[in-house]
Amino acid sequence: MSGTARKPGVARSASAAYIGSMRQTPSTDQRALRTRQSLLDAFVGLILGRRYETIRVTHLVAAAGVGRATFYEHFRSKDDILLSAMEPVLLALATAASGRAARSYVRSTISHLWERRSLGRTILNSATGPIVQRRLAAMILTHIARAAPADIAPSIRATGIAAAQLSMLRSWLIGEASCTAEEMTDRMIDCAKLIA
What we know:
Elements: H1 8-23, H2 26-49, H3 57-64, H4 68-74, H5 78-98, H6 103-115, H7 117-124, H8 129-144, H9 154-173, H10 181-190
Helix pairs in contact: 2-3, 2-5, 5-6, 5-8, 6-7, 6-10, 7-9, 8-9
């Protein structure tokens, strides 16, 4: 060691940066991704077999084969894992509502929902509906806040658009409304007119 004194904070932050970089190795990242995916897969498997309200974190960790602490490293709650599972769909819907989505992007998401309609029905036609709607409205709000007319609060408009999109999807997935995936894609994109 040299005769110069180090500032205590500098030594700690340098070692913290080194330790932090050690934690972010590719093998660790891959392991974390696999664990997260295992938890998401467990969630999907469980929600197909039981009501959302009856699923507990204990069930998720048992189905994924991980510990409870591991679950909380990846998700804050059962609602958080639900919303993470729905994130790609909600992002496509929010982008469609903004009027800036590529039609092919929205179309592929709608087709994905149709192919997995039993899961979509389970999620959209249950107690999870309001949770999903709140997240979608928040996502839409980030896309439309500046574009909304002054006569209607952007949060009200975003909530209305989210409710319209999810209501149409729910009706379609449970068989109350019949249309093609192409037509449903158009309806999702048409929701952008609600902010005009």
